[in-house]
Design brief:
With 105 residues, the chain is α+β, with helices and mostly antiparallel strands. It is 40% helix and 30% strand. It has two domains: 34 residues; 50 residues. A four-stranded antiparallel β-sheet has the order 1-2-3-4, with no helix packed on it. The radius of gyration is 21 Å and the shape is flat. 1% of the residues are buried.
């Protein structure tokens, strides 16, 4: 019985380690670390295998860049008026309220 409990705790520890490591890898890959206040990838568009177009916010300015495995090319500086910026609103509150309302009925 004790062996089963120990195996259960080891299983939980492995799950937690896998969760946090994949979360950290995802943050590193997509640049979503919360410490980056002056540099942000606003939008990325793949144009072919290994080639991307990025809109990057550096400070208060927006820049268009292309990137491949070997090169990073600067294209132009963009005006904010040229961009359509969609602010992503948190949808969790809306779904939580809907879920609570359905449970109360």
């Amino acid at each position: 019985m004790i062996e089963l409990i120990i195996l259960f705790f080891i299983f939980i520890a492995v799950l937690l380690l896998a969760y946090f490591s994949t979360r950290k890898i995802g943050q590193m890959k997509f640049g979503t670390n919360r410490g980056h206040k002056n540099l942000q990838i606003v939008e990325a568009l793949p144009i072919s295998v290994g080639q991307y177009i990025y809109i990057v916010r550096i400070g208060c300015e927006y820049h268009l860049m292309t990137m491949t495995k070997e090169h990073i090319n600067y294209c132009i500086k963009l005006d904010e008026s040229q961009l359509v910026l969609n602010e992503i609103e948190p949808q969790f509150d809306k779904y939580l309220k809907k879920f609570i309302k359905e449970k109360q009925e």
